Amino acid sequence: MVHVVLDTNILVSALWSKDGNPAKIAHFIPDGKIVPCFCGEILNEYNAVLSRPKFGFLQGQINALLDNIKKYGKPCNVSKSAMPFTDESDRIFYDAARESKSILVTGNIKHFPTEPFIMTPAEFLSKINLNTSP
């Protein structure tokens, strides 16, 4: 099992397209192949973004995804790093991954520093030895 921190854009993409790499990654959560690490601030961000009317996600879809993260995931403590960020809302994901020694999976790799533990969904799926069929 692999510990990950999922950037919010991964969850948006997972709900948006059931066949994309983010959806494949989300399917690994209840299978126990990945363990999402989270804190309260991350869960609040997930809920706030996924609930935006512009996405049109059903509340049931959002709840099911967040329930899986809470049920199969691992809460982590996060302390603020000194790493500079253009968008402060990205910091919590970086800090959570750093603190929990997890892989940060994001579709916005350019928003984060270059670190070996930060990967796009495609990089994650190709580098981590997981069966990619849900």
From the spread of the alpha carbons, the general shape counts as globular
The ordered H/E elements are EHHEHHEHEEH
| Count of runs of 4 or more consecutive helical residues | 6
Summed up, the domain count is: 1
Global Rg: 14 Å
Q: Could you give the distance between the termini?
A: 15 Å
Helices and strands: which structural class? alpha/beta
Reading side by side through the largest sheet, how are the strands ordered? 3-2-1-4-5
Beta-strand portion reads 5-15%
> Which runs of at least 5 residues are low in confidence (pLDDT < 50)?
none
The CATH architecture can be named as 3-Layer(aba) Sandwich
What profile does the largest beta sheet have?
A: 5 strands, parallel
Q: Could you estimate the helical fraction of the residues in percent? A: 40-55%
Q: Roughly what is the average pLDDT, rounded to an integer?
A: 94
CATH superfamily: 5'-nuclease
Determine the CATH topology. Rossmann fold
CATH class: Alpha Beta
How many DSSP-defined strands?
A: 5
